[in-house]
Amino acid sequence: MNDSQYNMPSEGGERNKLHSAVRAFGRVMAIALETILMIAVALLGVMYVFCKGPSPAAKELFVKSVRETSAIGFLANIYLSDEEIAQIEAGRESDEYVETDTTLINIPSAEETVSETGEDAYGLVDDDGDGLILEEIRGQGYRGYMMIVLDPSRVVMGCVPSSFGARGYTVADMVGYYDAVVGTNAGGFQDPNGQGNGSVPDTLVVYEGKIYYSEFGTGMGFVGFDDNFIMHTGKMSIQEIKDANIQYGVCFGPTLVSNGEANDADVLSSGLNPRTAIGQRADGAVLMLVIDGRQVNSAGATYQDLADIMLKYGAVNACNLDGGSSTLMWYEGGYINNCASVVGIRPVPSTFLVLKEGKSNG
User: Fold this and answer.
1) Cα separation of 359 and 272, whole Å?
2) For residues 208 and 227, what is the distance between their CA atoms, to the nearest angstrom?
């Protein structure tokens, strides 16, 4: 008998190996399914405790957190009726419009912006002299970043109106398109079942003084910059936007700080989520804030948290922007915060950008 015959696997041996592989795969899948089922049951149990447990505060926090998202808002309906949810969300919006007092903003000359020591008017240091100061933000249960832009004329709203309805752009795409150095997401967009492509704003947009999607209104609040680089925020009407000569603006809200004072506590009551916000100090410096959320080391922030942070950094006016899975800040060639989206970086219709030194939107 040829020696090579001893090395030839039998047909029965091959079948046994195949059956073993199938059984092993089946066990792995069974374990995976059991694990998923256990996690689902555990989550349902946790949600039940939130919704039906003894703590009204926990129920309110849970409902507001999930209802602020487009993809998982339905979770609140598992244990609560529409009437119960409506009662929890009642009072969050305010119809009162407080006109922005532009006299509270006095933009200094470039020479006055930073002292010889490199400190700005609020004691923050511009280490490399590029007109930008990045601060890491840490609070109870959240982490994020604050970008202080000393020259407000460098801040522009990045969007591509010709692409509305066709495609959205990631923050990184928009930074590249405008050759900018910093970018965050800005206004909201139509996102049915969390499947939107970021191409259609869900409220009006002002770009280079022209209003787009005026029929969509201003939602919970508007924020925009006029031709003197002063930021306005509030539930402005279209006529008020025109009268203020707004050049760049988006809607989302609510207003966090108006004329140096935080908004009403009822309006600032919210859940914990990733957040993006923008504000302006009395010296005109623009404050761009992102807070991570839905992570082990950063559950997220409330609107009240954002208002407190903005006031701490000297904001005279500030507004909440689109958050959740859209919350991102781009700086020095990459995203500096963590994206909360499980499907990757999402395209958006509008961003706030910081142009390179020597460039302005004027």
Assistant:
1) 37
2) 10
Give CA–CA dist 170/167, Å, rounded: 10
For residue range 160-177, list pLDDT tens digits in order. 999 999 999 999 999 999
Tokens of 134: 């990045």
- Identify whether the C-beta of residue 284 lies closer than 8 Å to the C-beta of residue 273: no
Distance CA 100, CA 267 (A): 18
Spatial contact of 214 and 204, defined as CB atoms under 8 Å apart: yes
What does the DSSP 8-state code read for residue 343?
Answer: T
HEC states along 277-300? EEEEECCCCEEEEEECCCECCECC
The position carrying tokens 């009726």 is 81
Q: What is the distance in angstroms between the CA of the first residue and the CA of the last residue of the chain?
A: 92
At which residue do the structure tokens 């305010």 appear?
Answer: 94
pLDDT in tens, 290-346: 999 989 899 999 999 999 999 999 999 999 999 999 999 999 999 999 998 877 899
CA angle 212, 346, 309 (to 5 degrees): 80
DSSP 313: T
Which strand (E) or helix (H) includes residue 149? strand 142-149
Total residues found in the chain within this entry = 362
